[in-house]
Amino acid sequence: MIKLAIVLAAVVSATGAAAAQEGITTMDITRKADLKTVDGPPEYFTGKVTVTGAFQRPDPSRVSGGIVHFEPGARTAWHTHPAGQTLIVTEGVGWTQVEGGPKLEFHAGDILWCPAEHKHWHGAAPHEGMTHIAIQDTIDGKNVVWMEKVTDEEYLAPLGSE
Fold first, then answer.
1. Distances, alpha carbon 105 to alpha carbons 92, 93, 116, 138, in Å
2. 3-class DSSP state for residue 32?
């Protein structure tokens, strides 16, 4: 046991020295209690939307994201992402639509992918809120291009309709 502890200490020490030489720093952890929550800007959202823990990672990473909560009936405006977007649904029921495609329903536990430059919207169903983790890359300083708001007629169209 003592020999194992000495070997592990030597490996940790050597790994730490090698990491320091390569400029690797410690893991950055933002604690839940320190996450900031802001209202989704009304020019980009319809209804009550909050964004928690929005982040943009430093170069060379291009990843940005946040936790977005939609109250029942709330939704994004139409928008695109230059490198696409992944949504990991953590709570509730939502709706989404890619321009020209059918309106689809999704649920907690589902993972959505919207390809680069595809005009789309997403939000909560009218009867239940929805929360998702949004992850996208930033290209040339942009991770989203906002467009016009989704009309009530578009939002309330039957599921599966274009």
1. 11, 7, 21, 27
2. helix
Contact 65, 83 (CB under 8 A): no
Task: Map out the domains of the chain as residue ranges.
Answer: 29-156
Interior angle at CA 131, CA 127 and CA 136, nearest 5: 135
In this structure, are residues 72 and 131 in contact, taking their beta carbons and an 8 Å threshold?
no
**Distance from C-alpha of 31 to C-alpha of 48, rounded to nearest angstrom:** 25
Per-residue model confidence (pLDDT) at position 2: 42
The owner of tokens 């709330």 is: 74
Return all residues near 101 (Cβ < 8 A) that are at least 6 apart. 162
The superfamily in CATH containing domain 29-156 is Jelly Rolls (2.60.120.10)
Residue 85 structure tokens: 């977007």
Is residue 4 classed as helix, strand or coil in its secondary structure?
Answer: helix
Hey, is 101 helix, strand or coil? coil
| pLDDT block averages, 10 residues each, the chain of length 162 | 39 42 75 94 98 88 94 98 97 97 97 96 98 95 96 95 83
- End-to-end distance of the chain based on CA atoms, in angstroms? 66
